Amino acid sequence: MDAIEVTELTKEYGSVRAVDSLSFTVSEGEIFGYLGPNGAGKTTTIRALLGLLTPTSGTARVLGADVREEAALIEAKRHIGYLPATLGFDEAVTGRRVLDYHASLKGDYRRDELLETFTPPLDRPIREYSTGNTRMLGIIQTFMHDPDLVIMDEPTAGLDPLKQEEFNEFIRAERRRGTTIFFSSHVLSEVRRVCDRVGILRAGRLVGLEEIGALLDRGGKRVHVVPSDGDSLGVADLDGAVDVTTVGEEIQFTYTGEYNTLLDELAGHDVRDIEISEPALEDVFMHYYGTEHETNPPTETADV
Amino acid sequence: MFETARYEWERRFRGTVVIAVGMTILTGFFVWYFSVLDTESLQRMATSLPPAMLEAFGIETIATIEGFLAVEVYNFLWVLGLGLYFAYTAGGLIAGDIERNRMDLLASFPVSRSRLLFDKYGSLLPPIVVFNVAVGLVVYGSVAAIGESIDPIHLLLVHALSIPYLLACAAIGTVFTVLLDRADTAKRGAVGLVFALFLLDSVTANAERLGWVGNLSPTQYYDPSEILVDGTYALTDSGVLLTITVVLLLSSQTIFKRRDI
């Protein structure tokens, strides 16, 4: 049985199609990254998976339960953890009370263990929580009932880099326990570190579905080089350099070839400044899925 | 069972106590005030009021402690004040969670939407009981303290029969809260409707041909003045209120089960 099975899922709001006949499956024990720019329909998909939205057509199954059938879905939810993008907790109650409430409905097998990694101030009211603390409380409630399937919407938004790395490590450990993890993100660098497979969503349609390795090979790196005055780089001739543009003194391109070849080429020049980073998602789409570049967001400089 | 009801009631506890204390102080003050009033002139003034106003304030007689309390405490504080309060509070039950992004988490719980809704509605029951018990006791005690007496059975009835009325007001708020995404709009809508129905009932009470309009209002089915002063009441009225409550709750359930969150 697949943990998640989405079949021709479509959700329309009036004349707007938020998601358009999506089909994909997530196998048991897999970490699946659901990647796409903001507004692509990631949250709509997730909310349909949890039965918050009724699909306009098509359907999905989570842990074997059809999301359109409430009774079956409730049974499945005992084994599902969910971390929404925006966490709403009652402001006036303490973190401990929130967890107790969650425990009374979902069960509580792992709270103490989770509290060793994630450390929100449990005895303070939520209104005093920082964004990071709220996130950590959210993560604890997601995993406290030891779910088989975890669905997370932009899970690391609001975590500081250190906690983010801890979180990634935690996710990898979860996979070793056999937990299936489905999470959405708009940051490629985040997805690449933990996922086995990714689905790429764009304007409500699934435009890519592949192993993370293949995506990264095809996604390449974004390179910015500023050579010293008068030096012209031969990067345009390099195998794997595409979309070469020159902005002022800076040469920018996406590089998908062998790293050593690039470094050898650069070593023969006087380089004043260089930055090698993750490509922006939009660039990945543009180059590898042949889609139109409708918007022109600033290049995302990922912290690699 | 009832985990959500318990959780919600815990959250309401402090507010409930504050309101209960406020109402008991106010009630105690009314009773004391009655003891120093010149009731004769008050009665003359009251009977000169226009009939619609007499009806709106439930004034039968104001010269006895029963009549006085029926007006000041039960028509104002209970029918209008608490009626609006429970409509308002119920108006925020679901819409508030949706607006503040809390519903995403609640909807991920392994419980049905119906149970979530009824648990939340159920969390309004303890405040209804607390207010009734607290003010009932204070009325009985303070009336005795000023040397007056009040029929304990009438007092018991005026409180007990207010429960179906308050449940109906809360059910009106519940319909609003499942229909709307914004808590403020839902609360205001519920309060506005209950108040409008109260006014309709008062205004049309003396208009023979429009009397049926008043039948739409929950206030038509709970008359504290009659209960407290005359000891008359109709259990069918309470039956009507409970029926209204059930119908409204079932409608809310249907709407909430089908809607997108």
Automatic annotation (TrEMBL), chain A:
GO terms for molecular function: ATP binding; ATP hydrolysis activity. Keywords: ATP-binding, Nucleotide-binding, Transport. Residues 4-228 form the ABC transporter domain. The keyword Transport applies. It holds the Pfam family ABC_tran. The keyword Ubl conjugation does not apply. Belongs to the ABC transporter superfamily. This is ABC transporter ATP-binding protein. It comes from Halocatena pleomorpha.
Automatic annotation (TrEMBL), chain B:
It comes from the Archaea. Coiled coil: none annotated. The chain crosses the membrane at residues 12-35, 76-96, 124-147, 153-178, 190-207, 227-250. One of its GO terms (molecular function) is ABC-type transporter activity. One of its GO terms (cellular component) is plasma membrane. Keywords: Membrane, Transmembrane, Transmembrane helix. This is ABC transporter permease. The lineage of its organism: Archaea, Methanobacteriati, Methanobacteriota, Stenosarchaea group, Halobacteria.
